[in-house]
Amino acid sequence: MQNKILIWVFFIVYACGCTPEIDKDLVSAAGIGDVSKVNFLIQRGADVDAYAIDGWTPLTAAASGGYLDVVKILLEANADVNAREDGGNTAIFWAAYYGHTEIVKTLILYGANVIKKTKKGQLPLDIAIEKGHEEIVEILRKASVR
């Protein structure tokens, strides 16, 4: 009888998509900009703030990859805009690092903390200056004065 119960639990968990891998899959899908898979996984109950084995969240993965549509989907699903990956960097740090201007703007609209320093003591503004992303520098300067 116990085996039958376990089989049914196994079947239900996999049928609804609520597998232990679902959160890791969301980070992977976000990191490659797969909008349909991100939507599917969120609908199946994936945790939008989950950490993958490598320490990335779906939002940090999408922001660093430049996937604006995925960033918006995650934020609409209430992803923590200020969550840090294991290295201590937030999504806005990665967007500033890679020069993803529209993502920086979107993250600010959703309440990203532009004065939150990394573990190394850097601000998103510092990295935008270092990388020469002038438009992002101006956006972050304006946002930090608010």
UniProtKB/TrEMBL annotation:
InterPro entries: Ankyrin_rpt, Ankyrin_rpt-contain_sf. Pfam families: Ank_4. ANK repeats lie at residues 54-86, 87-119, 120-146. Keywords: ANK repeat, Repeat. The keyword Lipid metabolism does not apply. The keyword Repeat applies. PANTHER family: ANKYRIN REPEAT DOMAIN-CONTAINING PROTEIN 39, ANKYRIN REPEAT DOMAIN-CONTAINING PROTEIN 39-RELATED. This is Ankyrin repeat protein. It comes from Desulfoprunum benzoelyticum.
